[in-house]
C-alpha cells in the first residue's frame, strides 16, 4: 500500500518538473523551514529542487517522497503569475 502511495506522489510531481515550487519542511525543534526553487528532477525515490540563490547557501536539496507521505514536507507548485496552483501534493 505505501509503495503505491509513493509511486502516486512521484507521478503527481513529474508534470511539474521545471516549475517553481515552495517547500515547507520540518527543521527540527519546532522550526519550519520555507524554501523556494525549481523542481529540477524526479528519481525513483527522491526529487531534486534547485534553490533560489539569494535565499540559500545551498544550490540543491533533495527530499524523498516518503517525506511528503509523512507530511514532514509540504510542496506548493506555483504557476507563471506566482499564484499557487497546487498545494500539498499528497497521497
From TrEMBL:
Gene3D superfamilies listed in its UniProt record: 2.30.30.100
Organism per entry: Paenibacillus contaminans
InterPro entries attached to this UniProt entry: Protein_Veg
Pfam families membership: VEG (PF06257)
NCBIfam families in alphabetical order: BflmStimVeg
PANTHER family: PROTEIN VEG
GO biological process: regulation of DNA-templated transcription
Protein name: Veg protein
Coiled coil: none
